[in-house]
Design brief:
Blueprint lengths: L10 E5 L4 H14 L6 H12 L3 E2 L5 E3 L12 E14 L7 E11 L3 H15 L2 H9 L3 H12 L8
């Protein structure tokens, strides 16, 4: 798997959002401002979330993993948002049942196979409620980045 960007500029803390769509738009807008995704990514990821929800209830904090098609992506990256207050995301595989999400992991992937590999690795992290709790309460973006780099344990490039 080729390198993927994960740096402090892609970690958003204490995000104030009143809906899943607002959180997604804020994160996607940040990725666009950094040149990581094309402008089309913003609407594409909002629409994909409406059709294929990504909310995941966990033992700890519920998470969401919004992502969309590779043609909207310039550079592989992962963005993380820690919401100040949880917002409801529709649960993956459901039509209307929701879960209150505290942590959002937005994927910008330009290869289908690497997206699947990353999703599998993230699912392992999501099963550990202690890890989710520590990510949700960590004050340092650098520590969040370093923890994720270690947990994902594959080629990511972190910036400062």
């Amino acid at each position: 798997m080729s390198k993927m960007l994960l740096d402090e500029n892609l970690i958003l803390k204490d995000v104030e959002a009143t809906s899943a769509e607002e959180a997604i738009r804020l994160m996607a807008g940040n990725l666009f401002e950094k040149g990581i995704v094309k402008e089309s990514y913003i609407e594409a990821i909002v629409e994909r979330e409406k059709n294929f929800a990504t909310g995941l209830p966990t033992k700890g904090y519920s998470v969401a993993i919004p992502h969309t098609d590779k043609e909207h992506v310039n550079e592989k990256a992962i963005s993380v948002a820690i919401l100040k207050e949880p917002v409801d995301f529709v649960i993956m595989g459901e039509e209307s049942e929701t879960t209150p999400v505290k942590l959002v992991f937005m994927l910008a992937m330009n290869e289908s196979h690497s997206q699947l590999e990353l999703l599998q690795r993230l699912m392992q992290i999501f099963q550990d409620d202690e890890v989710l709790h520590s990510l949700a309460h960590e004050e340092s973006k650098t520590k969040i980045k370093d923890s994720l780099l270690q947990l994902l344990n594959f080629q990511l490039k972190g910036g400062e």
